[in-house]
Amino acid sequence: MHTDTTQAPLDTVETLALRYPDIPVEAIFKEDILRRGMAWSRGALEIAAGYKPKAYFIFSFDLVPIAEMRQGENTKAPEEIRLVGGPYDFKPVIVSVRLNPSSPYRVEKGDEGSLLMKLDGQVVAAVELQKAPSYYHHTLANGKPIMDIAPTIEWGYLLYLTVFRLCQYFGAQEECQFCDINENYRQQRKAGRPYTSVKSVEEILEALEIIASTDSDSKAYTVTGGSITSTLEDKSEIDFYARYPEAIEKRFPGRWIGKVVIQALPKDQVQRLRDAGTKIYHPNYEVWDRRLFEIICAGKNRYIGRDEWIRRILDAADVFGPGNVIPNFVAGIEMSKPAGFATVDEAIASTSEGLDFFMSHGVSPRFTTWCPEPLSVLGRTQAGAPLEYHVRLLRAYRDTRARYGLKPPQGYGQPGLGNAVFSVSSFMDVLPPAAAVQ
Ligand code: SF4
User: Fold this and answer.
1) Most informative mutation of 227, 230, 304, 309 for ligand 1 (most atoms within 8 A of CB)
2) Helices 25-36 & 387-403, crossing angle to 10 degrees?
3) Does 4 reside within a domain?
4) Of all residues in the chain, what percent carry a pLDDT higher than 90?
């Protein structure tokens, strides 16, 4: 049964909180905000403009294109918000800002310059913002802002290095159908944002030099970008991407936990990443169901294929250690229209099968909560998964991890409600707190 379609949003959240008391209400609200996006009042936006801005670190993660933002939200909104207190007595929970001027979730001014998150006019929690780190005020020698070259997310924990802002899977027949990387690049350039398509190794090192000398909050970095199916700057995918961790780890050995998010590559190529000093490898499989993978990830399916993709994930576990192979899936695309599952039960059964498969090998998938971005193929329908799907997925994830005795993933900061910093899903918020996890 979908609760969403028949109830007001607040009633849906409260119904699910009663039905699933083992999932904190903070996580239920967070999932709902992530899948619906949030609106900002003009006054709230003016306050937010003085804090760390949304950097558009890879995709848009918005539910409207920039062309439809009437208040300059794309330049004024913050990267993330922290929800605390309020009528539900929230423990701190960090939520990525996904813009949607018509969302029922709206940030408004409270008393004395404070900010409140409201749902259909009812206060949910207080909103806190993060100051921009001092390195955000620096530029490189060539004039590029650090926010373009090395933005930070997860409340300052993760430096996000999208070194190639485009993908060579191109057009509706090849691009993953939930992904707006190429369209987002175009809209950002059109809007006048400094948005480097290919970042040089030298630019990355120069930015990290500044960050290393001024910052102690960042604990990890991610090197990522679109897929390279032929060559980029005359280099194959592995030759292009491996240069970054090689250079970073040579210059700053062990300074951060190094993560790489690229396609599932053959074992000898993956070994190069490990030899460079990369700690975590994310060969993202996006969706478990075979039929949906073939439709939604048509490019990946054609060039590599689902069976080979999975085989390579398991091969990578030999190289990195299974707990350090963390393939992402996009939570909710199992229920996208027109090809997805029609019921929450079917979608959860399928994804749970995938979680069980990987976790039985010690491999630790994770997810980002899908919001239908309108510049992607699936986003055109604006029909995401119901909230109950996301709540049940959190339970399946937590319980499957526990069944296989898996430790919290490395490179995500502390797990547990009140500690977690991962902002595009609540999976870290619902894990039990653990000591000595970095
Ligand atoms: S491989 Fe798919 S998800 Fe990754 S950037 Fe390309 S289109 Fe987007």
Assistant:
1) 227
2) 130
3) no
4) 94
Q: Give 360-382 pLDDT, tens digit per residue.
A: 999 999 999 999 999 999 998 76
Q: How far is the CA of 262 from the centre of ligand 1 (A)?
A: 9
Q: Is residue 281 part of a domain?
A: no
3-state secondary structure of 425: coil
Q: Please, what is the average pLDDT of the chain?
A: 95
Same domain, 153 and 238: yes
CA of 435 to the centre of ligand 1 (A): 35
Q: What is the pLDDT of residues 201-247, one digit of tens each?
A: 999 999 999 999 999 999 999 999 999 999 999 999 999 999 999 99
How confident is the model over 171-188, as a mean pLDDT? 94
Q: How confident is the model at residue 435 (pLDDT cuts 50, 70, 90)?
A: low
Q: Is 299 inside a domain boundary?
A: no
**Res. 106: pLDDT tops 90:** yes
* pTM of the predicted model over 0.70: yes
- pLDDT tens across 21-61, in order? 999 999 999 999 999 999 999 999 999 999 999 999 999 99
Residues 147 and 238 in one domain: yes
pLDDT at 4: 53
- DSSP readout, 165-196? -S-SS-STTTS-TT--HHHHHHHHHHTT----
C-alpha 286 – ligand 1 centre gap (Å):
10
> Which residue is closest in CA terms to ligand 1's atom 5?
226
User: Are both 256 and 161 inside the same structural domain?
Assistant: yes
Residue 50 lies in a domain: yes
Q: What range defines the domain where residue 34 resides?
A: 9-128
Distance CA 213, CA 405 (A): 39
Count how many residues are written for the chain.
438
Q: Pick from 86, 220, 63, 251: which is nearest to 153 by CA?
A: 220
**Do 261 and 343 belong together in one domain?**
no
Ligand 1 centroid vs 178 CA: distance in angstroms? 9
Ligand 1, atom nearest to 178 Cα: 3
Answer yes or no: are the C-beta atoms of 4 and 70 closer than 8 Å.
no
> Residue 128 and residue 48: Cα distance in Å, rounded?
10
User: Residues 337, 347: contact at Cβ < 8 Å?
Assistant: no
Please check whether residue 34 is in contact with residue 371, taking contact to mean a CB–CB distance below 8 angstroms. yes
Of the candidates 272, 314, 306, which has an alpha carbon nearest to the alpha carbon of residue 289? 306
